[in-house]
Amino acid sequence: MPASELQGLSAVVTGGSRGLGLLLARELGRAGCDVTIAARDGKELAAAAGLLAASHGVQVRTLVCDVRDRDAVHELMAQTAARAGGVDVVLANAGVIQVGPVGDGAVGVGEFRNAMETMFFGALHTSLEALPYLRRSPAGGRLALTGSIGGLMAVPHLLPYSCAKSAIGSLAEGLREEMAHRGVSVTAVHPGLMRTGSHLQAMFTGDTGREYAWFASLAGLPVLSMNAERAAARIVGAVERRRPRLVLTPAARLAARAHGVAPVLVTRANSVLARLLPAVDGTAPGGVPVRGADVTMPGSAARSRLVGLCSRLNERAADRFNQRPA
Question: Could you tell me which residue ranges the Ketoreductase domain spans (predicted)?
């Protein structure tokens, strides 16, 4: 195998303590990068570093950083550059998932603000603080921003997520256009459903049990969702090759193309889907968010077993990718 162009470069992954971020750090480490992972939770970071070293033989450094705080991101880049002699590769991956219907007190302004602060402004802070270092990189800096198929087309009951990811997509495209002549490549990454175990960390509102049931089931189905390890390898490969855009999973590519060709038709189809999703009927606790790992499944034992069967692969991924809450 030829040596990776990333060999010996200094890399930073935000949201690197679990799920996709953890796997991106693993792939960068395997490519020979000096990797720093950042996240809000110091205990999660320590667990992630231990998992990467024990299971994959990848050594990473960790720094606690809340990407919503630009000063904290400034320190992340400055400390990494001081230790590693620069910053060459940055993957802005920090994110949150909120699942529930808009209105009736289920999903409100707070959820939209949290999504924008964490994902869009987190990506913006990371980009702005990284760019001075990336422009000075002898190898030519590489920046990747994690969007989503949910940012290319709105997804019912995931509107805060879709809005933030849509803004990230625009940011990535605009930065690529403006940074091309400065020697910095920017890759917009738009994954579809991936089996990362994120259903346990997502926040559910409205009829939390039924919201969890559909989300966990779809996120774990092999036909609709993608193996997260394969996804991470493809993302790092795209960053290495300086691709402008990567849309992952056949279903996501098909959806993105359909929306581009016939947006009205796709929007009408999603309206039908929205009517099939759980509604707030006054018996659910409205706007009280519940983490997926803490959701109580309603209904029959057979229904619970069905959800468990559909999400089995995702449950396994949660154990492997540091998603299981302590």
Answer: 9-192
Q: What is the pTM of this model?
A: 0.93
The CA distance from 89 to 261, in Å, is 34
Give rounded-to-5 percent helix, strand, coil for the chain: 55, 15, 30
Please state, in angstroms and as integers, the Cα–Cα distance from residue 163 to each residue in 44, 132, 167, 279, following that order. Answer: 27, 28, 6, 21
* Dihedral sign of CA atoms 62, 69, 233, 141 in order: negative
Domain boundaries, the chain: 10-320
Q: What are phi and psi of 99, to 5 degrees?
A: -120, 125
100 burial type by CB count under 10 A (0-12 exposed, 13-18 middle, 19+ buried): buried
Residues 92 and 169 sit within 8 Å (Cβ to Cβ): no
Residue 43 pLDDT level (bands cut at 50, 70, 90)? very high
Q: Which CATH architecture has domain 10-320?
A: 3-Layer(aba) Sandwich (3.40)
> Binning pLDDT at 50, 70 and 90, where does residue 139 land?
very high
